[in-house]
Queue: 2 jobs
Job 1
Amino acid sequence: MAMKGGMNSQPAAPQLIKNIPTPGDEDTTTDMRRLIPAWIISGVIHVVLLSLFLLVTVSQGQGSMQTELSVIESKVEEDVRDKNLTNDEIGNDPDLPTNYNVDRIEEVSVPGPVTNDAVGILNAPDGPPQTIPPPPGFGGSAGQGGGIDDPSRIGAGNLYGTAGGMGGPKLVPGGFGGRSGATREKMLREGGGNTRSEAAVAAGLKWLTRHQAADGHWGFNDFNVHGKCNCSGPGAHEDMAGTSLALLALQGAGETHKGVGKHSLYAKHVERALAWMKAKQNGDGVFSGNGYVQGMATVAICEAYGLTADPQLKGPAQRAIQAVVNWQGPDGGFRYGPKQAGDTSVHGWHVQALKSGQMSGLNVPNATLAGVNNFLEKVSTPDGSGCGYTGPQPTPRMTAVGLLCRQYMGWGPRNPGLSKGVETLRKLPPANTHKDMYYYYYATQVVHHMGGAAWDEWNPKMRDMLIDSQDQGQNADRRDQKGSWDSAGDAFGGQFGRLGITCLSLLTLEVYYRHLPLYRRELGAAKEEAVKNGL
């Protein structure tokens, strides 16, 4: 731009102040476009840097994760071992059945290392005598369990309390606490059972459950119909007796409708049978108008309640006990119908029912038990060593029934009448030449509770006779009889049939653990105190 003036005027100097255009003087689009390349370059640089950062972080994380997984997998491989996942009685070692009455491996069983420090009172037994409260328990504080019902009188609590704490078995003499876990195994071993006898029990239970009716009952006469087989040996037309004995055989091996783990195999069979029985019981607690059957059914329902404490069974069980109480005759005995003068055979089943009710914590009047003893006196010989059917004319079968009742009612092993009676039974030991499972069922229990030399002599004969006589399914025409016992030739085979004789045989082979020995004081109460308190 030229300055105004003459011919000698010089060129204009550059301006020092930039002219800034005001808005609207020119278009800004051109300036904005000039910035786009810078933005693109900056964005690319940031994306590249961020990607590199993420790649480094993920790589380090993956390496750490792979290292950690490698360590974990290594530990798993080192600690792998087979686990017993079917044992519901899980303790420190799931492969070891846990229960009470288990022999200790060490002198003291406590967490941590075993030491030789004194257990109990400080400085015992060398220190000065000290007076401490007795532990709550049976027999005037002579052991554990009970006591908690009456804090003001230690040891005077309910004898039905569980030994050892929550959920423990009722280790009461004659009770049900030996039917599972380590106690069962110990009772089996000490009592003289073996693998073959347990295999026979397992086979017999399998046969029973195959011949159960769809509605849950078992019948003496038509078990083969429900089993869809041609098994021989039908018995009398008696479904309640068949169901009761089959239930007793299953429950004798620890099977209940609440069973889990290894004792759940036949839980549904037991459940259906109990439902059928409850549906047949009337409002007065009566299952049957036959005295034999009422006694059997009451034993079964009381055991079912005692083994599970199922509240839905308490009512039916207590009503059944009340029906037995109402059944008692004027002489204190029980017979075919209510209020009749008793006979020893029916009397035996009702005494078992009353004792099962007591051991399950149900109410049994003392007056009824007093009547039981009155009848036993009526049918016994003067020294009590023998029993007759309705009077004191003894027979081996009725002597076995009467002696078991005496044991449950309080006779101890030193009672002269009991000792002499057991010697009488030893003169008619188990033998294939004398088929009488009704006699063996009672006599085996009597001798088992007595123990000693009598049991050592009796048990191998009884055990091996039953094992050897069990049907092994060798008859090609009657394979389904495997696991059962033939009723042909038995003294009561016509009434019980194959199903009933099989049940009695199973109950006899379960004698080792079905009821805890009456005279094993380390398993529970002192006998006299237990009887006095209704056990």
Job 2
Amino acid sequence: MTEKSISNAEGWAVLAFCMAASVAAILWSWRHGSMLNYGDAVAHLHIARRVFDSRTPRFSELGSVWLPLPHILLLPFVQNYRWWATGLAAVIPSSLSYIASCAGIYRLARNWLSPAPAGLALVFFALNPNLLYLQTTVMTEPLFLCEVIWIVVWLVEWRAAIDRETAAASFELRSAPSAPRSSIAHSGRLQACIAAALVAAIFTRYDGWIIALIAWSGVAITLLRHAAKRERGRLASPAFWLATLAIAAAPLLWFLYNSVCFGDWLYFARGPYSAHAIELRTTAPGSLPHPGWHSPWVALLYYLKVSELDSVAAPGWSNFWGSIVVAGAALGAAGAWLVEKSAARRRALAWTLLLWLPAPFYAWSVAYGSVPIFFPAWWPYTWYNTRYGLELLPALALGLGFAAQLAADGLRRIKRQSVAVVLPKLAFTFLFAVAGLNVSALLRSDPVVYIEGTKNADARQPYDDAIPPALKSLLILDPHATVLMNTSIYPEIVAFTGIPLRQTINESDLEIYRSALAAPASHAAIIVAFDGDEIDKAVKAHLADFTLMGRFTAKNQPSAAIYASTKWLDRSRVSF
């Protein structure tokens, strides 16, 4: 395996390919109305919008459970009401993350691979229909994959730069002992990029906390070893310690934010909206919370299986080929390590192991972190969190690239020269065709992530269709009437009604919301309540003050009702 630089033509071709794939997916998703399929996607948009569009605009509106960076990136785009209501606000940050991820995968692969196997890795990654769909939404996976891939790219290049600069400095000392040491500017810039990407990852997903700990510890150990060789400049540099301070401060800032805004530094982990609290509310008494609960081995099997389903076509859900692909990628990564003769390049290659971190992380999260993963192949035969399998996609893509390179190198060793020249070309043609057929098969069977999002949307659709028109008919009496409702459950109801969030009193308004629950008729003209929620209980405690305007039901959802304050209704009808 020989390192080759990426030519300008090669780079532009990769960029054009990724942009074309992104645009095609965006147009498809827009045409099919799929940008808001996931309830989480709607919630992310809602959180970003309410930072400025609320009764009490403030940054604590960023919430407590989801980390803030994805919502902060959305802030400029959700200010456009139509972009917020339709999901278009997500397209720019998500698609740019996707394109950067694709460029990063190719650049990482080209550190060891020739253009053909690197291109195969790119095709497997970039044309994955599940990823292409998610990059049209506001889900956090495209952004996080971008951060992780570039963390690994820069770590690999940083390690190579360290070795080059050390060798250059050693040569300078031998040739001119009194001469100044060679510059470490390049590795310093890469180190700063790594630190910035780690901080971004920490503020994007909790996986990023583990990656930051492992990656920066590896950086520190590497610099410590160089310090032991009397190369103390890098470890003692203010830049390294400032970066260390920033990485250490990032999770501490999140603890402080939760403590100041919500009164509990672990509110994100044990508050009413945390994964643990949701699992307690949704698990039937006496039943197993989810498959893999307190069983890391079972949890790992579930995660690897959903990674297969996310990556490889699964006829009849058996997905034998998915197991072959995962095994082939793992063998390719191991083979690359074994055949690499250069100690320096092997040290750089070690950083790619970070791409495999999602497997143990999610095995632990499913077993002990209240993070269930469901898919139709195994019990309980439904869809939930299937997108988490995509976090292993970069490792699978790079591993398959390594496997293809090793196979081609083996074919080139055939003694007959004519066969040794032709067979690798035929092999790559075949592999690219198989990758294309896999994409086609995934599209025909509908990607599991898209299926989950569609079923998610189908569950909300009855209320999205029925409640906004009912609210609009009431708001004709007074377009500025205050609406009391829980916007975290069905936030798109507000957007589809066409009113700003600041016209509502909702759970994020804290003290105002609590006051409204104590005297709902004094604070709101219109109430949207869901059976059993706090607002429903508050209205029923003051039922004499309200007139029921409509009741709505949906399968497997709590029933909904719209109430109007009787006094407001009488007054508005008279004035109307």
